[in-house]
Design goal:
With 252 residues, the chain is α+β, with helices and mostly antiparallel strands. Helices cover 46% and strands 21% of the residues. The protein is elongated. The N and C termini lie far apart (41 Å).
């Protein structure tokens, strides 16, 4: 039966085709093998590239799946287990450090909080379960971004030059993509991610990525506390590392 939405059908066929291939494929071959007009194929690939669902390998003149496709494919299988397994991990972490802890996953340019444990709740806090926050502002997001391969990290910010400078801020100093990429490099060098007052003023967070069995960064574990100095960072990082290792072993 012919599709009632041909463009949507062609998009899904292209994604399925790329998912079944072990290497990038040229657009002309995609069009030929799927019997989709070349112009439509290029238009669809351009939109998928803009949304991060495919990557363009310019040296090969070919396309492969991008980070958004990986996020989508892992979304169903990972979020329920992460929520279930992460609940115990974050509860133990919060009991150990006496502060808010949470597990977040990357969704496009944002992180989604899927688990949280806290001893008490601040009057206003933006990381409740189900909330999405720009990844470049959060310790959790920075931890995951720092663990992405370079080409997929770049794909996350494709089409952007300036990002949101502060959560909920309509105006403020520019936050260029170059700074987000530099933050990812600094995080890799440091060994953990830090956020200081960019999500909630007067609060600081540290985070570490969690990898699946294929060494893909599927989530991050973080702790947030009131304060702005770095005197507690290393103690918090050690506690987060234990929790991240526990969650990683549980899902691998």
């Amino acid at each position: 039966m012919p599709s009632k939405v041909p463009a949507a059908a062609s998009t899904l066929r292209i994604l399925t085709y790329l998912a079944q291939r072990s290497r990038p494929i040229a657009a002309s071959r995609i069009a030929s093998e799927l019997d989709i007009p070349r112009s439509s194929t290029y238009d669809i690939l351009a939109e998928l590239l803009d949304q991060g669902f495919v990557l363009h390998y310019s040296d090969l003149h070919a396309y492969g799946l991008g980070p958004s496709a990986y996020e989508l494919s892992f979304g169903y299988t990972r979020q329920a287990p992460l929520a279930r397994l992460g609940k115990r991990v974050t509860e133990r972490l919060t009991d150990r450090v006496g502060e808010i802890s949470h597990v977040a996953v990357l969704q496009g340019r944002h992180v989604l909080y899927v688990v949280e444990a806290r001893l008490s709740k601040p009057a206003s806090y933006p990381t409740d379960v189900g909330v999405r926050v720009p990844a470049h502002l959060t310790a959790s997001g920075r931890a995951i971004l720092s663990a992405l391969p370079a080409n997929q990290l770049a794909a996350v910010f494709t089409g952007e030059t300036v990002l949101e400078p502060h959560l909920g801020a309509d105006v403020g100093p520019a936050f260029p993509v170059a700074r987000a990429l530099a933050d990812a490099r600094d995080t890799r060098t440091r060994g953990y991610a830090v956020e200081n007052g960019e999500v909630l003023e007067g609060h600081r967070s540290v985070a570490l990525p969690v990898f699946d069995g294929a060494r893909w960064p599927v989530a991050a574990v973080a702790v947030t506390w009131q304060g702005s100095d770095s005197s507690r960072d290393l103690d918090m990082v050690e506690a987060v590392r234990v929790a991240a290792d526990q969650l990683q072993k549980a899902i691998s």
